[in-house]
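Consortium newsletter contribution from the modelling node. Members have asked for a concrete example of what our holo predictions look like. Here is one, prepared for the adenosine-5'-triphosphate complex that several groups have been discussing at recent meetings.
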Amino acid sequence: MSFEDDVKVGDTNYDDYVIFLKRRIRQLELQVRTLEADKERLERELSRLRMEMSRMKQPPAFAGTLLELLDDERAIVQNFNGPRFVVRIAPWIERDKLKPGSRVALDQRTMAVIELLPSQKDPSVLGFEVIERPKVTYRDIGGLRHQLKELREAVELPLKHPELFERVGIDPPKGVLLYGPPGCGKTLMAKALANEVNATFIRVVGSELVRKYIGEGARLVGELFELAKEKAPTIVFIDEIDAVGAKRMDETTGGEREVNRTLMQLLAEMDGFDPRGNVKIIAATNRPDILDPALLRPGRFDRLIEVPLPDFEGRLEILKVHTRKMNLRDVDLRALAGMTEGASGADLKAIVTEAGMFAIRARREYVTHEDFLKAIDKVLGSEQKLAQQIAIHEVMYG
Ligand code: ATP
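And here is the predicted structure:
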């Protein structure tokens, strides 16, 4: 039996039922709208996945060079030194970015230009880290007063006051070599210097030069100096220079030949370099003992500065630098500096961060001495690590 059979107009049951139905309709309408929105979202997701799938299925493209733009739709391209082709340009490519010499990806079947590739001059492609003007300043360096003074004299003074050197008639040093154990502030000093003289900082890692781009090391060194000149004033920082400039041995393996070619290019670049120009080279190594003497000859890296493990005062200053913005409560930095002999600047920075983490975990807004003690334990572990660091330091750097 239906509801209508049971109730009449004006009946309260009937009115209630109408209200009930209206509410139900509104609920169902809302449900429909939600389902429609869901459907739309899923359709969008589906089409995105389909596109992704078709992209994954695409065969590999050829890499080529654009030689000439004929009109908006066609260009002459070449891959390697093969024949030249007149091909179409895919509609999604921004025309104004295409220039003769651009590196492009070419469709395998039609040779159409389907993508504009980053130029080889792009520093990120070359593996260089380029910072227009690093944010680090001399205030961020703890200790190392003597080292910083020497570095500033060798690099900052000739950049800021070249006339002093001209008047006296001497050439400023061409390259400075910073040596010492890892994590003691070599990179930090070079960055702060670049900040002070308002220079571009280009960092390149020696081991990457010879390993990441096999057969390209020498070319990369050339490009590094090109880029440095373009962006001058520039501080070129060559980290792990021992990977490129280790003493030359018999050229038995291809790997060694590669290293030597890279080194020869580096020496050639340095020799052809104006010491009074505004590109300065700072190199860093943890292994000064294995460097090729050719690198250390006058006119090359002829200023050597040791950056050792920090002593008590150094550690205290490094701790002060890194806790500058922290909310400390009853923390005795002198005591902490006293118990961290053998720790590097990087170790001390890690201790400060770790102490902060202990405070956060305890839901506190301030850091206590106890947090630091736990952090020292965590970062340096047993005293063995420190003893090891000190022993290595003594053997390596005397
Ligand atoms: P590597 O030989 O491994 O390249 P490095 O000597 O270049 O090491 P940096 O990269 O300069 O070491 O230091 C690593 C980090 O340790 C720095 O970013 C900084 O936070 C901290 N640090 C090291 N030395 C000091 C210092 N003297 N004062 C303040 N912080 C320091």
